[in-house]
Amino acid sequence: MGLSKFFDRRANLMVPNVSWGFGVHECDILLVTKAGYGVEVEIKVSAADLKKDVEKYHKHSSRKLKLLYFAIPFYLEPLIPFIPAHAGVVSCKKIKPEYKNSYPFLQCSIIREAQDSPEWVEHGKYKFTESDLFKVARLGVFRMWDLRETNQALARENREYAAAEDKGSERCPGCGGSHTFEAVRRMDYCNDCGRNFQGGVLLGDAITRDKNE
Fold first, then answer.
1. Residue 15 and which of 24, 48, 69, 197 are 20 to 30 A apart at CA?
2. What residue spans of 17-129 are helical by DSSP H?
3. What is the residue extent of each domain of the chain?
């Protein structure tokens, strides 16, 4: 969210996690400026991920994208040499809130300006058409509905966990042992005998579970 504000999501058309539907390589953020030019924002959060980026086949090069920015945490600034020379660099730092009821926010600043992509210049300085803009907006709507479904699923799971907390005194009807509520299976699992039960009724024999589950 902090990056979307920094790149002015109110003024520019911006879509996260673009991997299909537009004829460009995968982009963490695809942005189209008011002037109709494409911008890619690549997000890196670890040194290993940043160093490995050079192995990508597309090299962040596309005739449709004028500018490329790498958004990195401030502590990765020493690794800027691993970033393509024409790419801009945005340094980000999470700032703790000053007040009790405030939230942390992301402080971003450009420490290297982006230059026009060589491939974009070579192929005629591509400008997005109305058809292109419709495709980008369509992808944005898909992302909105995907996020809505994810948020609803998380809210449902939180409600189920809260309900399980309220039933804390309930014991396994088979052995009287303590239980763990499983949100995915929507049932209780006895920590002692391993049997599932729901509403005080056993649902079957003990199930052997992987220790890592």
1. 48
2. 47-52, 118-122
3. 2-135, 165-208
